[in-house]
Design brief:
mainly beta, 17-stranded antiparallel β-sheet, 9 helices
Length: 847
């Protein structure tokens, strides 16, 4: 009986205790992909009660009576405090990454570092920012994302490139684009112009390629991008980092069950504005007024009464369209503690806003990471993509857009028989822009296989040896076909075709050892490495004309096929090292050294060293700063100096090549260029001073950088007098030698403001950037002209750069006004010339 009474008493007391506690359950998930957050911490505020989420993110915790606030935290995510409602027993929590964490790990050259330890100037672009924009090319994600980084579209065509400049134009003739590195593998640009792909001048004659090497990459696979801006950050890449470095990290597997994701996008593009052009009635009135004021020009009969005419053909509306684009991606992500994987496949189809243009991309990626032993890790990254492009000739004077603006509104799109209409009049020929866009083919197909294999060995604690083999294999097929056609009274009697196939191979081998050490308040890291790579190309081109039919596009069936063939290669070998030091999270320093050797230079100047250092002081961690820490939660001053080089001039520019020359005596060979074995590296030195501030518990951030960047020994062609044989007919003229002849200086100021305006269930972040850059041509050494001339499509000078002035100033006549009437023409400085010009112009415009 006594035992029964004790049992009943314990049961009553236990029930009272249970009544004083509430069991709360729920699931903690990642805001980005909805996956469960394994290991997330749950704590009842003010107590020791807590728990950890399981592998699926599920949790349960007992909440004592009188407690109602739960604290959720996880490394890399923003901590949340949530108040329970009375009687609430279920609470699901979505956690978001804390992009403002000072201990966020960021990618640097050949490794990673804590963001708080960085002393150089760099900018992070996370997955949320990439997904926040509707983009089809990865380089489009850089537009407006980083202070000091300017991005300009080279063309409005789908899949076209974005020309990126980091802290201004630092070189003239060498490639000025930044270095792109994806998971440690350098992305290869397989061409600098349409001619490199066998398209001749079909994409215009610009010096910057409109074909983007990054258009083969699927942006949805990207986890983050780090933009290294100053030389203390880019010097680890030596000769390849002179124009800035963009480090791209792709998504990887995570521990847990497989997570399948689908991402879809659909959009409609349109040209937001049009150039205001005359319609048919306005053109007729203009034509009649010019005829009335010009002797010998009769008005056209069909324009006698403009009020009877309609609007005519609006050629801009005819060539532009509402263009659809859609993208679809399926991915799987997961793994165990030992093996993790990420697999994806995507498809993109983007129509151009100009009729007859289109861009398609198929992309597949596999990333695997395996922990084979505690001391051994193995990984594979592989990406394959295939793109198909229909490229219309949109740019240049012979482009579709220019033709649509100059084609008069009295010309119809189709004639009475339903065929394309074109007009040939005395002194006036205008090909139908619609026919140009739809009948002529400018096609480009590309494939790319990019990736690497890596091995990490940890023989002792804190020492890691990483070995990588990277590859980038690509191929392309460019085709230009012009059919034999008749448009109205204009005709092309003979069709023509040219096809070029390119094969490009790039491989690299890297080995580097990293040691991280800690002694009391001192932490340091040492890294030593070696790298070598080789890039080679080969192309074959065949062109012919007078094919049997427009439907037969086999060059072998044309008349007298012309075959061209070429190949080349370049290589680089490097040794590098980096040392970092951190004392008590207050004083930090970095020193970088790299020694590069490039086959692009002669034997006497093949190797060059590059040094860099950076120092920073986090004054907010000083003891005397504690009273201000509630206002300034983080403050750091940075200063850095460094050297980088530039070798992007192509292979064997220091030597002499030969070219074939046909003559009446048969085929011969001649020297093609003047050699310069003394050509050496273009070098760049840069100072950077920066200030980082985080205010009001990281609610407001300010980043300010000032830089002074000087490029010396610029790689460019020497300007020689005509008696040296470097001018005249291109079939016999010698190409001038490349050398080191100039100096450019860039100074600038960059300011970035970011704020977390609202936090919690509804979040609102803002960012403001502004940059100032001033460049100047400091010197031109060894030239006979103290200026650099820029030409238009043919031989017209459109820009002029003089010593002491900024680059690429527009050059031309200053306009004093517009001739208003006949008296202005007669009383001009050169009346006879002006009258003749006006007369001929009127005849051409009126036909």
């Amino acid at each position: 009986m006594k035992n029964i009474m004790l049992f009943l008493l314990a049961l009553v007391l236990g029930s009272q205790v249970m009544a004083q506690q509430t069991l709360v359950t729920g699931r903690i998930t990642d805001a980005l992909d909805g996956s469960g957050l394994i290991g997330a911490n749950v704590l009842v505020k003010g107590t020791a009660n807590g728990t950890i989420a399981d592998i699926d993110g599920n949790y349960s915790v007992s909440v004592p009576a009188g407690s109602s606030v739960l604290i959720f935290s996880s490394i890399g995510y923003r901590t949340q405090e949530i108040t329970l409602s009375p009687g609430q027993t279920t609470l699901n929590v979505i956690m978001r990454e804390d992009s403002e964490l000072l201990d966020e790990v960021v990618v640097v050259g050949y490794g990673t570092m804590k963001k708080s330890d960085l002393s150089g100037a760099s900018v992070s672009v996370g997955e949320d920012k990439i997904k926040g924009s509707v983009i089809t090319n990865l380089d489009q994600a850089l537009q407006g994302r980083a202070a000091g980084v300017s991005s300009v579209m080279t063309s409005g065509a789908p899949g076209s490139a974005v020309s990126v400049r980091v802290r201004g134009q630092a070189t003239i003739n060498a490639n000025a684009e930044p270095l792109y590195v994806i998971d440690g593998v350098i992305v290869q640009s397989t061409g600098q112009s349409g001619a490199d792909f066998g398209l001749g001048s079909s994409l215009g004659n610009g010096s910057v390629s409109t074909i983007s090497p990054l258009s083969t990459i699927n942006p949805s696979d990207i986890l983050s991008m780090e933009i290294l801006k100053d030389t203390s950050a880019t010097a680890i890449y030596g000769a390849q980092g002179a124009n800035g470095v963009v480090l791209i990290t792709t998504k990887r597997g995570k521990t847990g069950d497989a997570k399948f994701s689908y991402e879809g996008m659909f959009g409609v593009q349109r040209q937001a504005s049009r150039i205001d052009m005359m319609n048919l009635r306005e053109f007729a009135e203009y034509s009649n007024s010019v005829a009335a004021e010009t002797n010998g020009v009769d008005s056209r009969v069909e324009f006698e009464d403009p009020s009877l005419l309609g609007k005519g053909t609006n050629w801009q509306d005819a060539i532009f369209r509402h263009a659809m684009m859609h993208q679809h991606q399926v991915s799987a992500q997961g793994g165990s503690e030992k093996v993790k994987y990420y697999v994806s496949g995507s498809f993109l189809d983007q129509d151009g806003t100009i009729i007859g243009t289109e861009f398609q991309r198929y992309s597949f990626r596999v990333n695997l990471d395996a922990d084979l032993k505690k001391w051994l890790k193995l990984g594979v990254n592989a990406m394959y993509s295939s793109t198909k492009e229909k490229l219309g000739l949109a740019d240049s004077e012979a482009g579709i857009i220019n033709y649509s603006l100059l084609t008069t509104p009295d010309i119809p799109i189709y004639d009475i028989d339903g065929n394309y209409a074109s007009v040939v009049r005395e002194g006036y020929t205008r090909i139908n822009p619609i026919a140009m866009a739809l009948d002529e083919d400018i096609l480009l197909d590309r494939t790319k296989l990019n990736g690497n294999f890596y091995l990490e060995i940890t023989p002792i604690k804190n020492l890691v040896w990483r070995s990588e083999f990277g590859y980038d294999l690509s191929g392309s097929r460019g085709e230009v076909f012009k059919p034999a056609v008749t448009y109205g009274n204009w005709s092309r009697d003979m069709n023509s075709i040219s096809v070029q196939k390119n094969d490009n191979t790039f491989w690299q081998v890297k080995n580097y050892v990293t040691y991280n050490g800690y002694i009391d308040k001192h932490s340091y890291s040492l890294m030593l490495g070696q790298e070598c790579w080789e890039s080679s190309y080969e192309y074959q081109k065949v062109s012919t004309s007078n094919l049997p039919s427009n439907d037969v596009k086999n060059p072998f069936l044309g008349e007298d096929p012309q075959i061209t063939f070429g190949y080349g290669s370049s290589a680089m070998s490097s040794f590098f090292g980096r040392a970092t030091y951190n004392y008590d999270d207050r004083y930090m320093g970095t020193y970088t050294y790299r020694y590069d050797g490039s086959s692009n230079f002669g034997p006497s100047n093949r190797w060059a060293p590059f040094h860099a250092f950076a120092l920073s002081w986090r004054f907010s961690n000083e003891r005397f700063f504690e009273p201000l820490r509630s206002v300034i939660s983080n403050g750091k001053v940075r200063i850095g100096w460094g050297q980088t080089g530039n070798s992007n001039i192509g292979s064997y520019r220091w030597g002499t090549s030969i070219s074939r020359m046909d003559s009446g005596l048969g085929t011969g060979y001649r020297q093609a260029n003047i050699a310069n074995p003394a050509i050496k590296w273009e070098t760049q030195e840069q100072w950077n001073i920066g200030l980082d501030l985080s205010l009001f518990n990281d609610r407001l951030g300010i980043i300010v950088d000032w830089y002074d960047k000087t490029s010396k020994d610029m790689l460019m062609q020497l300007q020689l007098p005509s008696y040296m044989g470097t001018r005249g007919n291109v079939s016999s003229a010698l190409a001038a030698p490349y050398g080191n002849y100039g100096t450019i200086n860039n100074k600038g100021l960059e300011i970035t403001l970011n704020s977390r305006n609202l936090t919690g269930r509804f979040e609102w972040d803002s960012e403001f950037q502004i940059s100032f850059n001033r460049n100047k041509l400091v010197a031109l050494d060894g030239t006979d002209a103290a200026q650099i001339e820029g030409y238009g499509q043919w031989s017209d000078i459109v820009s002029l750069t003089k010593i002491g002035e900024s680059l690429y100033n527009f050059y031309g006549y200053k306009v004093a006004g517009i001739y208003q009437d006949y008296d202005d023409l007669v009383n001009s400085a050169k009346p006879n010339l002006i009258l003749l010009t006006a007369f001929l112009t009127a005849i051409i415009r009126l036909g």
